[in-house]
Amino acid sequence: MNIASLKEVVSEAEWKLRVDLAAAYRLVALYGWSDLVFTHISARIPGPEHHFLINPYGLMFDEITASSLVKVDLHCNKLIASPFPVNPAGFVIHSCIHEARENAGCVLHTHSRAGVAVSAQKCGVLPISQQSTFVLASLAYHGYEGVALRDDERPRLQADLGHKNYLVLRNHGLLTVGPTIADAFLSMYTFENTCRIQIDAQAGGELITVDPRILEGMGQVMKTVTAGQGANIAWPALLRKLDRESPGYKD
Q1: The pTM is what?
Q2: Residue 206: CB atoms within 10 Å
Q3: In Å, how far from its chain's centre is CA 104?
Q4: Do residues 71 and 46 touch, judged by C-beta distance below 8 A?
Q5: Are 210 and 128 in contact (CB under 8 A)?
Q6: Average pLDDT for residues 40-64, to the nearest whole number?
């Protein structure tokens, strides 16, 4: 697949964003969270306009490159010519969150097996693992309304998410919001593992739940765990991993 490089076309800041977003797509594929071509990660381009980058619909996540990402506005108008379309369902979900949340630098959505399984459980996320304590500190739920194609769902999705950073889309999947691509990815890594652990644990014996008092102050705990660097404690290592295993993301 021959896609012309946009490195000399866009700003330096946008190019860096494109490289990080392409890396996130490759990492989602690498960790087994992708659903063929049907989920999305979007990143807002800094500036007063609500412009953001999203995947070219039809490419597998391990094919996505910095130059193939599609730049759109809140009305799904392409701002740089691209031979690829944008998935309407992905656009509705991601654009409404970028519109409502100024701090939503990145929105990451998955349909993984464990994530969808937990999204279908009436109990939702259970406080049964260390990973779940981070998720439960900032978790919201949104009821299933069918494939997200209707604009009238947007205000309900925005209201349900509120200021939380983790969202269970009932009977659908998982979503994370972060100020950066690295933050949204690390949050999804924790979210996905939370769900996998829950499904595995439910296949065994009686569950032990975490004392509710431990859930308090998890924001400060996370800062300590990441040595005050947030997701940047892991992101450079993840990029080095990609450089070894899937280096084409920078094209």
Answers
A1: 0.93
A2: 5
A3: 10
A4: no
A5: yes
A6: 92
Q: Among all chains, which residue has been given the structure tokens 């506005």?
A: 73
CA distance 186 to 233: 10
The per-residue pLDDT for 229 is 59
Using DSSP, state whether 28 is helix, strand or coil: helix
Distance of CA 235 to CAs 36, 101, 156, 167, Å? 24, 23, 32, 22
Among 198, 51, 184, 187, which residue's Cα sits nearest to residue 124?
198
**Coil, strand or helix at 41:** strand
Residue 142 to residue 218: CA distance in whole angstroms: 23
Please name each of the domains of the chain with its CATH number: 12-242 (3.40.225.10)
Residue 249 has pLDDT above 80, yes or no: yes
The CA-atom distances, in angstroms, between 51 and each of 77, 93, 99 are 10, 15, 10
Helix (H, G, I), strand (E, B) or coil at 174: strand
Token couple for 4: 């012309």
Report the candidate in 169, 186, 179 with the shortest Cα–Cα distance to residue 222: 186
Judge whether 125 and 197 are in contact, CB under 8 Å. no
d(CA 72, CA 54): 8
CB 80 within 8 A of CB 6: yes
Q: Could you tell me what percentage of the chain is helix, strand and coil, using 3-state DSSP and rounding each to the nearest 5? A: 45, 10, 45
- Per residue in 11-25, pLDDT tens? 999 999 999 999 999
Q: For residues 138 and 129, what is the distance between their CA atoms, to the nearest angstrom?
A: 15
